[in-house]
Amino acid sequence: MEEPSELVLRPGLSRFGWLFGSAAALAALGDVMLYRGTGLPWLYLGLAALLTGFGCWVLTAPRMWLRLSPTGFEYGTVLRRYSFRWDDVAWFGVSEFASHRWVVFVFAREYPGDERVRRINQRFGGFDRILPDTYGYRPVALAELLESWRFRHTRQSEPGTTAPDGGA
């Protein structure tokens, strides 16, 4: 099967259950307050609407998508968009913390920049960066997909062989 020239992955729904659940709880609480005529129902209903709007924006905004191309990959967070070349990355893997498994990556030795963030993340979890979502994939499957693209477009090493503890 031929690889697409670009692959675009949208944020998955699995990580947003807590957000939409919180919005539903706030809406229910606001509705009860409104019915009883007590408290600040409009505050709770407004917060529920804001959380729902934010969740919908994250799920649909193109800046939040993960884009893979022969030159590299891009992903976004609420604050900014990140773009890296495949040569910038030494390996992709999976790390577990905060009761979730996340896809992480370590920059190649030659990669300049992000020293402060890299130093903090290396001390914290042994990686340089973390992807904000798994984009509908299981973490291991996404790390393997990213490793295969990295390997295919850099020929640096075998996929997953440089990551600690089995890597991807």
Question: Secondary structure elements and their pairing?
Answer:
Layout: E1 7-9, H1 17-36, H2 41-60, E2 66-69, E3 72-76, E4 81-85, E5 89-97, E6 100-107, H3 115-125, E7 129-130, H4 139-154
Antiparallel strand pairs: 1-2, 2-3, 3-4, 5-6, 6-7
Structure description:
- The chain crosses the membrane at residues 16-35, 41-60.
- Keywords: Membrane, Transmembrane, Transmembrane helix.
- It comes from Fimbriiglobus ruber.
- It is elongated and about 65 Å long.
- The protein has a four-stranded antiparallel β-sheet with strand order 1-2-3-4, covered by helices on one side. Strands 5-6-7 form a three-stranded antiparallel β-sheet, sandwiched between helices.
- Helix 1 runs antiparallel to helix 2 (41-60).
- The protein has two domains: 14-60; 63-166, PH-domain like, CATH 2.30.29.
- By secondary structure, the chain is of the alpha+beta class.
- Helix content is 40%, strand content 21%.
- It has four helices and seven strands, in the order E-H-H-E-E-E-E-E-H-E-H.
N- to C-terminal separation? 22 Å
* CATH architectural designation of the largest domain: Roll
H/E series: EHHEEEEEHEH
Q: Strand-residue fraction? A: 15-25%
Number of helices: 4
Shape: elongated
Poorly predicted residue ranges:
none
What top-tier CATH class of the largest domain fits best? Mainly Beta
Task: Bin the helical content.
Answer: 25-40%
Number of domains: 2
Q: What topology, given as strand order, has the largest sheet?
A: 1-2-3-4
**pLDDT averaged over residues:** 89
